[in-house]
Amino acid sequence: MKNRVIVTGGAGFIGSNFILQWIAQEPGIVINLDKLTYAGNLRNLEQVSGHQHYSFVHGDICDRELVSDLLERNQPRAIVHFAAESHVDRSIHGPDDFVRTNVQGTFSLLEAVRAYWSALNESERADFRFLHVSTDEVYGSLGPGDAPFSESTPYSPNSPYSASKAASDHLVRAYHHTYGLPTLTTNCSNNYGPFQFPEKLIPLMILNARKGKPLPVYGDGQNVRDWLYVLDHCEAIRIVLAKGVPGQNYNIGGWNEKPNIEIVQTICALLDELSPKDPVVPHKDLITYVKDRPGHDRRYSMDARKIERELGWRPRETFETGIRKTVEWYLSNEAWIEEVTSGSYRQWIAKHYA
Ligand code: NAD
Ligand code: DAU
What we know:
With 354 residues, the protein is an alpha/beta fold.
């Protein structure tokens, strides 16, 4: 078994940050398997595209033959599974792709991996890891005074997206319990940072604010999320991969709960400072309350003490430092923004915010 890792969904937001960090900090080779849906963008990986430790394979995790072949040829020591449909609003408009990729795709991947892993020798089997990247949304929604989600909080997913992720988590759990596959599952809170597709709250608000367009805040703006800078998430995944105990779940969070309206106001204030010549300043004049997301979870909050206690991980970035870096990144990467906001992106915005 070689020092090779296969990453699925590595051309997406978190996957590409993970690969960039991996190439900079780890000795092993990374193979990126990605279908390149609307959310996948090889531009994110331009810096490493010619690196001898990186290669890209265009393909679908549902294609078992392709995945089996990839495993046989590369003999990886681990899979880090990011590939998914990830946007809650899209799952409400059309859940099919979510069930296909998140549930059937994870199942198909697990089957291919199980066959590959079963044929390894005993010590290789013991060393192998299947790391499944999941979300805090599988735990459902909290009230204002409820305790944060812990690893033993019962699953209670509310959207087609979170239900599909919960289903995939259960499959991963079952493959450990039944077959002994050395799995690790991470459940993380909301990420933000470079390369996030501007359908999600933070980049959408930055882009709209710069153009003088309304900033659509759902409902009363008091829904709470726990925000984590993406490179902190990537570091946590690397630590779980290196030191996590097979069969275990690890919650990852930012210790940083904030209502959505506060996030939007912070972005507006940063843009007033960093981009004062935009068409509408102060940018907060653009804040517009719009119809709520159906079934909108009220509050997420992560108890991330287990990963700190057992594996020694804590986020490095505060929200203040992370959000400033993020706004600065979007201000200095206009070519990237131009490219991702053409075509199907415009259709999505027109349909969803009509
Ligand atoms: P993303 O939507 O930005 O990227 C998903 C990637 O998966 C894209 O590159 C896409 O092309 C690829 N992909 C989709 N379907 C595929 C298929 N069938 N086969 C191969 N590749 C496919 O997502 P993200 O925000 O980077 O999230 C990555 C993972 O992390 C997801 O599993 C998500 O559930 C989880 N997660 C995300 C967050 C967050 O805040 N974004 C938080 C916690 C967990
Ligand atoms: O909690 C982890 C999850 O975070 C991940 O599993 C998902 O993949 C990721 O998309 C994210 O889900 P959310 O639904 O929390 O993220 P989103 O950026 O879509 O929305 C964040 C909050 O902002 C949510 O309460 C809805 C609100 N919102 C979002 C958009 C796009 C708005 O008020 N207006 C908007 O236009």
